[in-house]
């Protein structure tokens, strides 16, 4: 999640645990602890793909944060909070730290909660990385707690209760969309194919669905407000890796994305894209990995992350209209490079 959400969550958790001991300093300390795990962004692992894959790694691991909480609590009690009961101080620090990666695990990016174990990162994908309906119920009570100090703990508790209910709602909404997708692909050649589902920006009503299908993939949008549960699919070019073997870095990238990768050959360049994040016309994680030399032979290059460019102005109102069930997906998903043109589509999802 974004830094504001994480800071508000850390502050609210600290305020609730502190109880009558809650002060503005406690709230600020909780906010700092809530953002601390994301300091791993300053680390450089050598290339942009590795930086992407290893973000939310050791600094988000429960096996690291819990022992670190004990050390930090001992240090803090020794030098700054001698009057605090150690158990209360340890609970505050541990809760403010570990709620950060737990919240991150509800997004699509993936969080390595169990690093260094060789297990997949956790990516529930029921929340967009920025969602005001989650953040505001936390942020407003925390700001109010800075003013009404006697009620600070109760305000923080109320904010946490509301935001947690919204988090639980996102799981319910995800379950409804999963059932709808299963019904839509049942009896088609897409039944049993890998499926990725995530909310669109800033809400849990309109959802994006991606289904892999060999050298193409099908992308659709479905809103919980749609009167018709039939998903309107758009086929997209997925491409393929042109080399007989793939480098270890690409294998790691495919494992990280769970196979939701697009290979795009354009002019003399080859890029790889994480299909889970963004939408068809806007993918923030696209990397140049190969170029053609003067003899028109592909050669690997050091990965370079490409600028996705700005969001098109027409997409914002189109997204809102689609959320309400009043817009087709073409305005949001289709462009001249990624979509099959209507005359090129020789088969349907059926």
UniProtKB/TrEMBL annotation:
Superkingdom as given in the UniProt entry: Bacteria
InterPro entries for the chain: Transcription_regulator, YdjM-like
Pfam families in the record: YdjM (PF04307)
GO MF, one annotated term: hydrolase activity
Residue spans crossing the bilayer: 58-76, 83-103, 123-148, 155-174
Key words of the record: Hydrolase, Membrane, Transmembrane, Transmembrane helix
Coiled coil residues, start to end: none
Annotated protein name in UniProt: Metal-dependent hydrolase
Organism: Enterovibrio gelatinilyticus
């Amino acid at each position: 999640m974004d830094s504001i959400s994480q800071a508000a969550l850390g502050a609210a958790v600290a305020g609730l645990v502190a109880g009558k001991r809650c002060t503005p300093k406690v709230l600020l300390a909780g906010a700092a602890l809530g953002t601390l795990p994301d300091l791993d962004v300053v680390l450089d692992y050598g290339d942009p793909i590795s930086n992407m894959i290893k973000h939310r790694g050791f600094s988000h691991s429960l096996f690291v944060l819990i022992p670190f909480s004990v050390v930090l609590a001992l240090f803090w009690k020794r030098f700054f909070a001698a009057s605090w009961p150690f158990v209360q101080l340890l609970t505050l620090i541990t809760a403010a730290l570990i709620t950060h990666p737990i919240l991150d695990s509800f997004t699509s990016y993936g969080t390595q909660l169990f690093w260094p174990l060789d297990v997949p990162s956790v990516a529930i994908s029921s929340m967009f990385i920025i969602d005001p309906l989650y953040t505001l119920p936390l942020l407003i009570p925390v700001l109010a707690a800075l003013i009404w100090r006697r009620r600070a703990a109760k305000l923080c508790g109320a904010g946490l209760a509301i935001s947690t209910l919204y988090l639980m709602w996102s799981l319910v909404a995800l379950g409804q969309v999963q059932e709808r997708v299963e019904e839509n692909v049942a009896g088609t050649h897409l039944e049993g194919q890998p499926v990725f589902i995530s909310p669109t920006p800033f809400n849990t009503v309109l959802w994006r669905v991606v289904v892999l299908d060999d050298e193409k993939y099908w992308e659709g949008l479905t809103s919980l407000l749609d009167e018709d549960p039939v998903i309107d699919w758009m086929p997209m070019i997925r491409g393929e890796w042109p080399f007989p073997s793939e480098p270890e870095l690409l294998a790691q990238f495919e494992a990280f994305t769970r196979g939701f990768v697009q290979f795009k050959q354009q002019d003399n360049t080859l890029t790889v894209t994480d299909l889970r994040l963004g939408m068809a016309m806007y993918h923030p994680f696209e990397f140049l990995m190969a170029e053609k030399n003067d003899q028109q032979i592909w050669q690997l290059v050091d990965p370079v992350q490409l600028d996705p460019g700005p969001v098109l102005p027409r997409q914002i109102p189109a997204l809102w209209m689609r959320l309400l069930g009043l817009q087709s997906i073409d305005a949001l998903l289709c462009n001249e490079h990624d979509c099959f043109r209507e005359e090129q589509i020789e088969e349907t999802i059926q």
